Amino acid sequence: MLLPFAAVSAPKIELAYMVSSALFILGIKLLGKVRSARRGNSLAAIAMGVAMAATLWELLEAHKYSGTSWAFAAPSLAIGSGLGWWLAKRVPMTAMPEFVAVFNGMGGLASLLVAMAEVVLVADLSSRSPLAGLLQPATTSLAHHGGIEFAIAIAASVIIGGVTFSGSMIAYLKLAGKLNKNRFGPLGTIPLNVALGLLILGCSVWGCFVADTPSALWMANGLVAVLALVLGVGLTMPIGGADMPVAIALLNSYSGIAGMTTGFVLANNVLIVAGSLVGASGIILTKVMCKAMNRSLSNVLLGAIGESGSAASKEGYTKVKTTTAEELAPLLDAARLVIIVPGYGLAVAQAQHKVRELASLLEKKGCTVKYAIHPVAGRMPGHMNILLAEADVPYEQLFELDQINDEFSQADVVLVLGANDVCNPAANDDPKSPIAGMPVLNVWNARTVVVVKRSLSAGYAGIRNELFQLDNSLMFLADAKKALEDLVTELKAQ
Amino acid sequence: MPLALLAAEGGSGSMPFLIVGLWVLLLAVFLGIELIQKVPPTLHTPLMSGSNAISGITIVGSLLSLSSDYPIPGMILGAIAITLAMVNVVGGFVVTNRMLGMFRERPEVKK
Lengths: 494, 111
Hints:
The complex is a heterodimer of chains A (about 500) and B (about 110).
Chain A: H1 3-6, H2 11-31, H3 37-61, H4 67-90, H5 96-128, H6 142-146, H7 148-175, H8 190-210, H9 214-236, H10 244-266, H11 269-292, H12 297-301, H13 325-334, E1 337-342, H14 344-349, H15 352-364, E2 368-373, H16 383-390, E3 398-400, H17 401-404, E4 413-417, H18 426-429, E5 448-453, E6 473-477, H19 480-493
Helix pairs in contact in A: 2-3, 2-11, 5-7, 5-9, 5-10, 7-8, 7-9, 7-10, 8-9, 10-11, 13-19, 15-19
Chain B: H1 6-10, H2 17-37, H3 44-54, H4 59-64, H5 72-102
Helix pairs in contact in B: 3-5
């Protein structure tokens, strides 16, 4: 950084940043309660506005924004805001995981570019130095220019930003179903990732401490950026499709950490505060997801499941009882407590409104309807909650695993909609199962379990589900939306 | 310039920014963990998209890299960074607002 901005800013600007930080903290706090969440989000948005205004104020006051600056800044601000607004307004709730993944990536790439702009600046200074190559060699390495911490912060921003960006793009492709491979040639294997990591480390040392000519600075740090992008791909590829809740949470955390390291590059506290809040949030969500699957983070990241079990999954089921809407209607008509277990299949079938319709119908008939939400149902933390919220299901009807697991025994009917592994009895009974020990919804305790599923194929974990053959299980083999439509029609006729 | 020199002109006593920054980081991380542990699973998706928008705080850095100190290539990088960060910020907050608008309490009868 050049002198005026490297310094902690003028007190009034610092105060503005402080206000912004306080608003961010308050915003996150309010985001944690359903009643105040919307206000929290608005406060965080205001905080962002304050931070941006403070920055522009600082720049304008120091006469640092030339016509060229504005010529670049104004259209970028307009295009970015417009694009963000447009995307946010048209994305369907079912596609939220993909959307969050893409946005994560944007933040990461922005951090990488900001750090690279610093490299460009330092490179420019070394070439401009009047002494360059004359009396003494131009010794403007990053560390020489701004101190060791400045250099390390730049390298960290580039690396974390790059991994966040490419990792998020892979997560997007996987979530959108456009990529199913877990590796591509050597990409995604542990040896290559380790090798990449070491190479990045080497290049970073070169870029931070050794490179002192414009071309060397460019080359070293550019190489770090490219390698970090490749590493992001390699780290995210092995993670399986249904483990994406963990991957997105982790990438979310990375994007915060990238912002935080950029704060050290720019000597700006508001970036450190905001970045670490996001980093902490992502880490906690990651932990919650891993716990919900009874797996360690490393196990998820290395993609250990999925492959191991896939062979065994093809074995047929011998005593499955299938059912139809006509058969189910009287059963539901007489039920007094129905618990609905939604899964990813519900999102795929876009059946959330139909669920609500069926539930309303049942409620009119005097039945109590509850929803049991497994923490890893869907493709991102809380995925099912927003889908059902979109369909106007009151959130008081949504129950977490611990809250509802004892209630299944009182339920007349449990309706499993496009969920599989989260209600697999093998997790409790079979210590050798890949999902052994994973907390599951004990749906089999209900009088009747109806599993709505397109086929008997294995779920994501690639293991068979004995639930399908239990005496009190009925399989309704159909697309969730179609099945619900039929049920609603039949039930109305009752 | 060495960040260690900042202290003298920045008015933060004798602490260089690195140290101040690390203090801030330490406290912010603990605060973040405290705040987020209490968030119910219902709000995990909005929390994620909202915090995602907050990670667009790099917009501050992007704006700084368009200052006239930077050579044109640096400004170009900064301009791209602004665009990306703004997509992240605006899109993130708008979509979170949209999601949260859908959360409803049970309107009438309690069973």
